[in-house]
Design brief:
Elements lengths: L5 E2 L5 E2 L5 E2 L2 E5 L20 H5 L16 H10 L4 E7 H5 L8 H17 L3 E7 L14 H6 L7 H4 L27 H16 L4 E2 L2 E2 H23 L2 H4 L3 E5 L26 E3 L2 H8 L4 E9 L2 E10 L10 H11 L13 H4 L3 E4 L2 E4 L16 H21 L6 E5 L19 E7 L2 H6 L6 E3 L1 H5 L10 E3 L1 H22 L4 E6 L5 H9 L3 H16 L3 E7 L39 E2 L32 H4 L3 E5 L1 E9 L4 E8 L10 E5 L10 E5 L3 E5 L4 E5 L3 E9 L12 E2 L1
Helix pairs in contact: 2-4, 4-8, 7-8, 8-13, 16-18
Length: 733
């Protein structure tokens, strides 16, 4: 049985005895973003009318993997020493047919997958209601198609109006889909409108009511109810998943967005918009394009100093609208049993409906450029207001419904990416089962899909407007880049402690594997990817940060990556199977140690279900960048963490702790370190420490360290042939 995850008074993860622990693992996996039946990755068309008509008749069962493959993939994760899985699912997978029409077959498939993970053992799971830029029908993933109809959108018009730009819009007859274009949908009409309605419909769209309630309450209510329905069904059908601590918690909505909230001038592109690539309309231009009017739109590309304007482009929808006609809306409303406010007229932009813009003899006119900068009572609002009011109100609703069905599980609060957490220190909304979910991606590596050993920029600092000029954010030299990563993650962790005093968990962090135009797939040299991921891992382990790498994709291929918007982050690929060099599986060997005492032979491992696969189950086949992702780490510390660092080039690991005062007296006074023999083969490994003695559990690659109290250190390294001590001081169990 797995141990319960607790939170210490210092806002760190610990076990029930107060021993420091660290959760590390992956997101499993991005295929949950699209249907399994029919198989519809983003490269295949979903914008055609027939596809939209069939959107209710899809199934997500078998994503992430068919049941028969669960053990195969989970054992690969355990071979890496991982003890945690972030398990994404989408709103669409739960409720694709219509409001309140739940896909119980999919829910039962999820339960079956989780039961498989439980039976394997050693892995703890938290659930993630995942979305990107609202929906797969607006260029991302998450919400079902009917939510767009609910807002009055007609997705068949998205391509012509550029209300959303989809991977499937780029066919073989057109230009190649640009690298990391999909995030620009955050600022397109569809996504911006949906998030504005979801979080602030009552403030800015009072005429948009569905069945007597504002669209904000309607959408939020349906989303939260769907998530809770899945969670409740798991509780009902598989309570052992919670009793045995296999499921440890639930995350709120992945990467929420404020939409137009707080935008001060709809007629210009905000200066603080750091992500601009391709056609970049102002909000007003998006409005008029959505109603079929042409517009001259700025074009941007990304440079190391941020977005750079490259010219302009005329976009002409030629009268095509992305709003439902009266006839279309009537059919939709009949299907979903919706009754709308009579003021909500069909066939037009809802922001025109609310007087934000209008038509004149000279053409479209922006009437209220600052419409989203103040509430109806004239209260001025901005991003900070959104975070501390609108987001908090959503979280309050989510938390209330979750705590009504589970008082004990962890609740992962996820705010806006790279933005400040809500200031809730001392609030009743924060309890000792609250975790704050952060995401981190290095901007340069992400957008350019390359790793520069010469320079990088402070992504977090740029987003937070720390620099008067982006040029001041540049860091020179690979060593300084690695330090910059650590500083950024440390600052994010400290901010969470300051304003929430809860653990900081990086539920997404990772690097693209298809760097340098997929050069590594041709020559087998993954040195850039190894250096990049090693830099991230070094920053995480130095701050004792728990994390879930993005990602492990069971369908990854060199050509299509993770099968979603040309992303390729997976640490495993089917095309790299049987190419991965496995560590030597020695049967004999010894550890060289300075310990003065032998440890009696241990017949049993005193650890809750070890996270690492036993030596007969080790499977690295297909794992990419193995050297960087497979790392030593403290599984359990009898005390508190101070510092850790794994130097990959020299194969040296250093751990510093503050041990409990009972270290000399308690029989439980020991710490466990995962010691992968890929890096530290038994016949070469050296263990040095400030105090103590050791037992090495060869079966699980775990080093048990008995140490004294107070400040202690441990160092693992490789011995040269002539440096080895012929007499072992460490018992190998």
């Amino acid at each position: 049985m797995l141990g319960k995850i607790c939170v210490s008074k210092d806002a760190e993860f610990c076990d029930s005895s107060g021993n420091a622990i660290q959760l590390r693992g992956v997101n499993f996996d991005p295929t949950v973003k699209f249907p399994a039946d029919p198989y519809l990755p983003t490269r295949l068309p979903i914008a055609g009318k027939s596809i939209l008509e069939d959107a209710e008749n899809v199934s997500f069962a078998d994503h992430p993997v068919p049941l028969a493959e669960v053990e195969l993939h989970v054992n690969k994760l355990k071979s890496l020493g991982y003890n945690c899985i972030r398990f994404p699912f989408t709103w669409e997978s739960l409720e694709q047919k219509g409001p309140g029409e739940y896909d119980f077959d999919y829910m039962d498939y999820v339960i079956d997958v989780l039961q498989k993970i439980r039976s394997i053992g050693g892995i703890q799971v938290y659930l993630d209601p995942h979305q990107d830029v609202w929906s797969r029908f607006s260029g991302g993933s998450g919400a079902p198609l009917w939510t767009l109809y609910c807002a009055g959108f007609q997705p068949t018009g998205f391509e012509a109006t550029e209300a959303a730009v989809l991977h499937s819009h780029y066919t073989s007859e057109k230009k190649e889909y640009p690298k990391m274009l999909w995030p620009t949908n955050l600022y397109k009409l569809a996504c911006q409108t949906m998030f504005t309605l979801f979080f602030a419909g009552k403030d800015f769209a009072p005429k948009c009511t569905i069945n007597g309630e504002n669209i904000q309450d309607y959408l939020q209510g349906k989303f939260v109810d769907a998530v809770m329905r899945l969670y409740s069904r798991i509780q009902e059908k598989a309570p052992e998943l919670f009793v045995e601590n296999c499921i440890i918690g639930l995350e709120t909505m992945n990467e929420p967005n404020c939409g137009y909230f707080g935008e001060k001038d709809l007629g210009i592109i905000p200066k603080n918009r750091n992500l601009k690539r391709g056609s970049t309309p102002t909000a007003f231009q998006s409005f008029i394009l959505g109603e079929g009017h042409p517009a001259i739109v700025d074009q941007y590309d990304i440079s190391i100093f941020g977005p750079t304007k490259t010219g302009t482009q005329k976009i002409d929808p030629k009268g095509t609208k992305c709003w439902l006609t009266a006839e279309e809306r009537s059919e939709v409303d009949a299907r979903y049993k919706w009754e709308r406010n009579e003021e909500w007229l069909p066939g037009q932009c809802i922001w025109k409906l609310h007087g934000v813009w209008g038509e004149t003899a000279l053409g479209p006119e922006l009437i209220k450029k600052d419409y989203f900068a103040s509430l109806r009572d004239r209260t001025a609002v901005d991003e900070s207001y959104f975070i501390n009011h609108n987001f908090v109100n959503f979280y309050k609703n989510f938390q209330s419904k979750f705590r009504s069905i589970d008082r004990d599980a962890l609740l992962f609060m996820q705010g806006m990416v790279f933005k400040e957490p809500p200031k809730l220190l001392g609030s009743d909304l924060i309890d000792n089962r609250t975790v704050y979910a952060c995401h981190y991606y290095d901007g340069m590596s992400l957008m350019f899909k390359t790793w520069s050993r010469k320079f990088n920029v402070d992504t977090f600092g740029i987003v937070r407007e720390k620099y008067l000029n982006p040029a001041f954010s540049v860091v020179i030299g690979e060593a300084n880049v690695r330090k910059s990563f650590k500083r950024q993650l440390r600052d994010m962790k400290q901010e969470v402690k300051d304003v929430l005093h809860v653990p900081c968990f990086f539920t997404e962090i990772g690097m693209p594997i298809d760097m340098d135009n997929k050069k590594a797939y041709k020559d087998g040299n993954f040195s850039s990817q190894t250096a990049a991921i090693d830099a991230l891992q070094l920053a995480l382990e130095g701050e004792n940060l728990s994390y879930s790498l993005w990602c492990y994709c069971s369908k990854n291929s060199h050509k299509w990556g993770d099968e979603w918007n040309n992303e390729d982050f997976s640490i495993w690929s089917m095309e790299d199977s049987s190419k991965t060099k496995e560590p030597k599986r020695e049967e004999d060997g010894r550890l060289d140690s300075e310990a003065s005492d032998f440890i009696p032979f241990a017949k049993k491992l005193e650890l809750d279900s070890p996270p690492c696969a036993d030596r007969n189950s080790l499977d690295f086949d297909g794992i990419r960048v193995l050297d960087a992702v497979l790392r030593p780490f403290p599984v359990k510390i009898h005390g508190q963490f101070i510092n850790a660092e794994f130097d990959l080039p020299s194969k040296t690991y250093y751990l510093e702790i503050t041990a409990k005062v009972d270290a000399e007296l308690s029989p439980d006074a020991h710490s466990f370190i995962f010691l992968p023999r890929h890096h530290f083969p038994l016949e070469q490994a050296r263990v040095r420490s400030s105090s103590g003695r050791f037992t090495y559990y060869r079966e699980y690659q775990l080093l048990k360290w008995y140490h004294s109290s107070g400040k202690q250190w441990l160092k693992l390294s490789l011995a040269e042939e002539n440096q080895r001590d012929p007499s072992p001081d460490c018992v190998i169990a």
